[in-house]
Amino acid sequence: MKKRFSLCIIALLVASFFGGPFVVALDTVEYIGQEQIIGSDDRTTETSIVSETTTVQEPIIVSETTTVQEPVTKVTYSSVGGSEYELKTFKEKLVVGEKGQIRRPQNSPLKDSIYSFAMTVSDPSVLSFDEEGNWTAHKAGKTDVTFGFPSGDSAQAKRFNEELTKLNVELEVKDVAVTMTITVVEPESQVMYRLYNPNNKEHFYTANLHEKYWLGLL
Questions:
Q1: 112 Rama class: left (phi>0) / alpha (psi -120 to 50) / beta
Q2: Which has more pLDDT, 193 or 68?
Q3: For the chain, which domains are there?
Q4: What average pLDDT score do residues 129-158 get?
């Protein structure tokens, strides 16, 4: 096809050079665009149309999930001198050797705190507390106990502030001194009865008065 097209061009150039009419006979004329071939006898071949398929990739949309964290509101706890405690964890009358741990009321936002008690004891030889609220009754006697919260730069105060942050509690304390008198008594003595059997020379001990009399009749 390119060769025939070149001959046609040459023929036209020759005609223009000599200035005369020139007849160029070509058997066929070809069109590149549709690839249609037309012969000199007006015969037409089938037209072949080449189609190209273009694949267009759709954009991928990635959705992002954003989590919005709601602000946490602090709980305000108002206390009267730090004197609130769960009644079953401490009492005014104790027995020598008795131990326990004082805790905040179960309906209090500080119920899970263990460093919130700073107890001042007038006679630690009778009763003592540690920084976690553990108490021990040492000997018989009376002592005054003043309630309070840890303060200052003590190790207990730092631990208590960490608990307040963890529990998300804002503390309001009314500056009132609350003091309680604690009585520690000796354990109640147990009366024991001793019986002697002269037949086998054995001793028998009992705390039951009825058993003492019944055995004495044998």
A1: alpha
A2: 193
A3: 2-39 (no CATH), 75-185 (2.60.40.1080), 189-218 (no CATH)
A4: 96
